[in-house]
């Protein structure tokens, strides 16, 4: 077999290039601390590493979501804790306002303090999560959910609940609708809470039905008979406006105002002089309750009838506040359960993260002892190949003749 000089150089150069490439690859593995540099090094391992890396990235993002959810829920719970403290102060002031030795002026001072608490609670209801997103406005997170009104405050947010993906199969609510937390206080089993004044001496009754739901105001009203018991007026207690002027009473008598049909009936007897009936929405909010309380304390109560009215109003306000506190407690419990769930998910997420790192390490990480041994071996083989090539390439017939 005849071997030409070009064949010797071609084969020798190819072998040296291959050895040099293997040496470079080993050096790159050591420098990068990775066994797999390209998918061709280990196709199956590369595919598996890609899947694990994607799962780890999702797990890391879920951890970020959980931190954001924790911040939002913690702030919401803190805000409701402050609301709870304010409402407890209001209940204390109710007790103080019921002290029989207080003058109208002194009760007025208590009413001013209550106004401060009302403004505080409205401010708390409009709290943000620190990123200018309102906590209790539903999806409408860029607009203050409560607007102060003459009757307290009106909810202008929507009924949506915001969620965050905190696990692959779990979306956690991170907000509550403000109207559900600060409103929905049932003052009656019916649509309206119709309460006869405790000083009434007659036997007439009052009932209320909806005539046009679109016209309902949610305000409080009072039906008051004059000192003859033959005429009555209807006053919007929230605005102070007389909506039905003095009207002759005849049983049964129905008047329609602000989407309501108010019916007065002898049952069984006629109304007495100065009899009164208060009408409230059967579903009230915290702000309306405190506003009613302020109005009651600002109303003179120097007469026996006035004192009875005040006592009834304070009793109603106290009952409503109890229900308000219950609403707040339910919401705080919901936020607390969310925080506890996040703690559990954080624990399982951290464990999953460690497993992903371990699996990636098993697939990708370099065995340094083996890599250094391979490096030394490759260097030795390359040197031997280079020296052999020098010896072989120097062989020539002319050298033999000489």
Overview of the molecule:
Belongs to the bacterial flagellin family. It comes from Undibacterium fentianense. GO terms for molecular function: structural molecule activity. One of its GO terms (cellular component) is bacterial-type flagellum hook. This protein folds into two domains: 34-187 and 287-365, f41 fragment of flagellin, N-terminal domain; 192-281, no CATH class. The chain is 53% helix and 17% strand. The chain is α+β, with helices and mostly antiparallel strands. It has helices at residues 5-32, 43-97, 104-125, 178-182, 286-298, 304-364, 368-393, 397-401, and strands at residues 146-149, 152-155, 163-167, 170-173, 185-186, 192-196, 204-210, 221-225, 231-236, 242-248, 253-257, 260-266, 276-281, 283-284.
């Amino acid at each position: 077999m005849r071997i030409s000089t070009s064949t010797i150089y071609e084969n020798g150069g190819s072998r040296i290039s291959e050895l040099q490439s293997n040496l470079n690859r080993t050096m790159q593995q050591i420098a990068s601390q990775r066994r797999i540099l390209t998918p061709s090094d280990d196709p199956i391992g590369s595919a598996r590493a890609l899947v694990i890396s994607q799962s780890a990235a999702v797990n890391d993002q879920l951890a970020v979501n959980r931190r954001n959810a924790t911040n939002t829920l913690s702030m919401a719970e803190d805000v409701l804790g402050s609301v709870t403290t304010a409402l407890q102060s209001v209940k204390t002031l109710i007790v103080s306002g019921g002290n029989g030795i207080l003058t109208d002026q002194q009760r007025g001072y208590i009413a001013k303090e209550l106004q401060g608490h009302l403004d505080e609670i409205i401010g708390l209801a409009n709290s943000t999560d620190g990123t200018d997103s309102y906590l209790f406005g539903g999806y409408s997170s860029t607009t203050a959910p409560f607007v102060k009104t003459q009757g307290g405050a009106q909810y202008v947010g929507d009924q949506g609940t915001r969620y965050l993906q905190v696990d692959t199969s779990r979306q956690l609510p991170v907000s509550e609708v403000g109207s559900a937390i600060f409103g929905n206080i049932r003052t009656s089993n019916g649509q309206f809470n119709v309460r006869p004044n405790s000083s009434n001496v007659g036997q007439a009754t009052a009932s209320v039905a909806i005539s046009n739901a679109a016209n309902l105001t949610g305000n409080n009203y009072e039906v008051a008979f004059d000192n003859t018991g033959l005429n009555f007026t209807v006053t919007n207690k929230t605005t102070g406006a007389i909506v039905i002027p003095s009207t002759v009473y005849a049983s049964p008598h129905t008047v329609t105002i602000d989407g309501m049909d108010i019916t007065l009936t002898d049952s069984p007897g006629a109304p007495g002089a100065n009899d009164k009936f208060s009408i409230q929405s059967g579903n009230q909010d915290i702000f309306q309750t405190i506003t009613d309380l302020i109005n009651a304390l600002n109303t003179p109560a120097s007469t026996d009838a006035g004192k009875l009215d005040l006592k009834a109003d304070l009793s109603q306000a106290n009952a409503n506040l109890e229900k308000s506190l219950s609403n707040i407690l339910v919401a705080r419990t919901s936020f607390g359960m969310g925080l506890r769930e996040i703690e559990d998910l954080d624990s399982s997420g951290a464990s999953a993260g460690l497993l992903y790192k371990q699996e990636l390490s098993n697939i990708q990480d370099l065995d340094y002892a083996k890599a250094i041994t391979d490096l030394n071996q490759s260097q030795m083989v390359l040197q031997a190949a280079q020296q052999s090539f020098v010896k072989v390439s120097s062989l020539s017939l002319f050298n033999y003749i000489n």
